[in-house]
Specification:
The chain is 41% helix and 18% strand. With 253 residues, it is an alpha/beta fold. It folds into two domains: 2-109, no CATH class; 118-252, Rossmann fold, CATH 3.40.50. The strands form three sheets. Strands 8-7-9-10-11 form a five-stranded parallel β-sheet.
Amino acid sequence: MYQEYIRDLLQQVRDKNISTETALEKFKNLPYEEMGFAKLDHHRQIRQGFPEVIYCPGKEKEQVVEIAKRLVDSRSTVLATRATEEIYTELRKEFPHAEYHRAAGAVVIRSGEALSGVGLVAVVSAGTADIPVAEEAALTAELVGARVDKIFDVGVAGIHRLLTHGEKIRKARVVVVVAGMEGALASVVGGLVERPVVAVPTSVGYGAHFNGLAPLLTMLNSCATGVTVVNIDNGFGAGYAAALINRLGEVHS
């Protein structure tokens, strides 16, 4: 990814294939590239191990494409979240190999060397309606370098469904739990495993659910130890955090 891009530049200078002045021009993009409508943080790949992610809502299609171009030019994998079919169509014109993960609402353009999957993150959803947020979490964790196991539709209304997957969940280094309605699944899982649990409330539910506020408060007030909570519908944030925690297991294993 971006480290390889820098290494390649330095190699080219050493081999006298490019001048130091040319390399210096390219390094001027560090720590960020001014694009007028955006300041693209190329340095994030070096600081955090994964490039900047494109959040699509609020951006023009042309802006998303231009950001993607700059990321691919620097050999970074592109992840565009909350992407519509329209944005995917626009990106495919420039990048025929772009992948649309419809369930996750995300576009991926793989560039450079992919991170190899390590450890294990389990992504658990309460209901089928929670799957889009769970898929966003799973895809993000995978791209950030984790192996991922998906276990869907195992909510507390049929607790036996969850218990049959107990052994599989306990094998994970980190568990992401995605739930709407009253959000009780995170507390149940937190009480069953000795692993960090990242809880994601979703905006799935009826009236007094208040578009995700009810499960958010339930998860924040969980009596189970080891449960942390991200914002409503934030599958991306949960998947990213889980992958970082999972990576620590490699360091200490």
